[in-house]
Amino acid sequence: GNGIDPLDIIETYGADAMRFSLCQMTTESQDVRLPVNKDADGKNTSEKFDIGRNFCNKLWNASRFAMMNLEGMNYDAFDAAKVDITDKWILSRLAQAVKEVTAMLDEFKFSEPLMSIYRFFWNDLCDWYLEWSKSRMGDDKQKQIAQNVLAFVLDNTLRLMHPFIPFITEGIFQKLNEIAPKRGLKGIKEAGTAETLIVADWPKDLEEFIEPEIEDQITDVQEVVRVVREIRNKYAVAPNKKLNASANAPAEIAEILNNNADLICDRARLESFRASPDEV
Prior knowledge:
- By secondary structure, this protein is mainly α.
- 57% of the residues lie in helices and 8% in strands.
- It has a two-stranded antiparallel ribbon. It has a two-stranded antiparallel ribbon with strand order 3-4. A two-stranded parallel sheet has the order 5-6.
- Helix 2 (15-25) crosses helix 3 (50-68), helix 3 (50-68) runs parallel beside helix 7 and helix 5 (111-136) packs antiparallel against helix 6 (143-161).
């Protein structure tokens, strides 16, 4: 009476959520602690599977939102000369994730690569890139660039996730094939086509996208956004109230922040932002 029937978990949470949670709990040097509770029907269950269900829900909803913004995407309209710093950043983060996950899977690890995918998808793609890309989707000059990058990143992310959560990723991949049948970054990198995700190629040869300097610049931007958000929360500033903000920073950092002031304003709900070594 102290064990859990996998079929009960699948019925309650879904097969993907169970697979995710089991892989996430798998370690090399310790037993898995799985506290058991009774559900409303008297079946054994565990709150440990909540993380799998939450991630699967996030993947489904975020992918639906992304694909809504891919309507009308034209592969041939991509212009590599027009990619902005957020495009370069997410491609660099994707390449880093592919490198890390591939290396860890080659060592027969499970939890570590899964959490690397988790952090990339939830933090980098959803919390930052998707939010930054919203305004670009309404700009005719930037829309096709953002769409192609987003489709390419989502495609490769699904391939990374597939060994862990095969059913939801396959369903999303099939829908992505309908909306954007040809994916890639024209003149830079092809994504490769496949009718089903289970036979699609594993992501590889993305090292050319890794740009540590770009990642460092976006890290500076993100840190400012976090600080502004903390200040807003501390003084209970209404979310719809835009503020003017300034920051004291060394000249080199100030230049980076000023060059990306629009990204800071977008995520921190600011009217204007400036940085300078002379700010008090």
